[in-house]
Amino acid sequence: MSDKNSSYTHPEALVTTDWVAEHLNDSTIRIVESNEDILLYDTGHIPGAVHIDWRSDLQDSTMRDYISPEAFAEVCSKNGITPDTTVVFYGDKSNWWSCYALWAFRLFGHKNVKIMDGGRDKWIAEGKELTRDKTKSEKTSYPVPAKRYDEEIRAFYEDALKFSEEKRPLIDVRSPGEFSGEITHMPEYPQEGVLRGGHVPHAKSFPWKRAANDDATFKSAEDLRAIYEGEAGLKQGEDIIAYCRIGERSAHTWFVLTYLLGYENVRNYDGSWTEWGNRVRAPIAKGK
Amino acid sequence: MSYPPKLDQIINLFEHLPDEEKRETLITYADQAKNQTPKEGESFDLEDVRKDEECTDTVGIFLRVDPDKSAHYKVSLGPQVQTLTRAMTAILCKGLDGMKVADILEVPADFVPRIVGAELIRVRSQTVYYILTRMKSAAKVYLNRKREEELS
Predict the structure, then answer these.
(1) Contacts of B151 (CB under 8 A, 6+ apart)
(2) In chain A, which among 17-56 make CB contacts under 8 A with chain B?
(3) How confident is the prediction along chain B (152 residues), in pLDDT tens digits per residue?
């Protein structure tokens, strides 16, 4: 374990690229790539890694929701994952989507999960091996989870509204321009169909990027505490909701707060601004 | 308007491919996108290199027009451009090659899902349409300039 990792509350949840390179043939581990770029895995991936897509594998294909426990068991089975498998996630975009996939795995109660610090970009920057070989997974028998843990780690519109009205900790992790309402799309992305700009009243702006270094690794525990405890004033034990546009950047922050800083009651509002900013009569605040 | 023959051929190819082969063919095209980068010493009638707010990286469109008004494109892509957009770049450079520059403005975008497949066009992969828009924009600027030159 690196010195940096040892100061996190749950250091076991974050592994280095070197650690992953040393465990490529470890049968107790399954490496999972999750990206925004839908074809990126096919252009080359870590040897032995499987691809789990945030949309086609983890979301319901009709309704805006996650898959059922039965479908989750099927996703795991076909990718050679058992309830005891340690799943190590990595991906593009500073690990947004790998954190999102990890969070989705936690929704179904899968406990042994890790993130590869620095994600795909760091692995490539270090000149480590990529392959286009198709990973063969021996099908497993993953039991259907008893439930989906929505109440524990997922927030809905009504929850966010309550937090807003009661001025409880609500963290907006989008860019400052999206928070203020100056823009209705992410910087460097097309408009994604949001009718109103701004933020949930009483939400605090702490863009996800503040938790990451330029090489996509997570900042040190000390730096993270300075941001989330010092500046944001978050306290251990209190309920916290994080949101962005569709829940992927807030999954990154959820991982930081839950695993790196040890907050026990953090929920990701995956409906996020694409729900809030389109909802009739949802209250909106503008400006900083 | 019907599609130009070269593009039509590519569309037909993709429409008959099973999903897995479609993905593999898209990756092959994405790999070929780097061959569309202008070579040193090449000259063009119009160069439009910019980083737009809606795209993750810089995209350069380079248009050369022959005396018979047929158009040829080269495209440079920054490293952060998505794989699907890279694939579409190679497809469009090949598919539109030799079209009359005025006809490029009329090329409909409805071929994109026929090539890519509806499943791959979704939130966070919408820039698949971006390259065609930029190519049309370059053609329009070129035609406007020519019109102004003729008037002056």
Answers:
(1) none
(2) 36-40, 42-43, 55-56
(3) 688 999 999 999 999 999 889 999 999 999 999 999 999 999 999 999 998 877 788 999 999 999 999 999 999 999 989 999 999 999 999 999 999 999 999 999 889 889 988 777 777 666 778 899 999 999 999 999 999 999 98
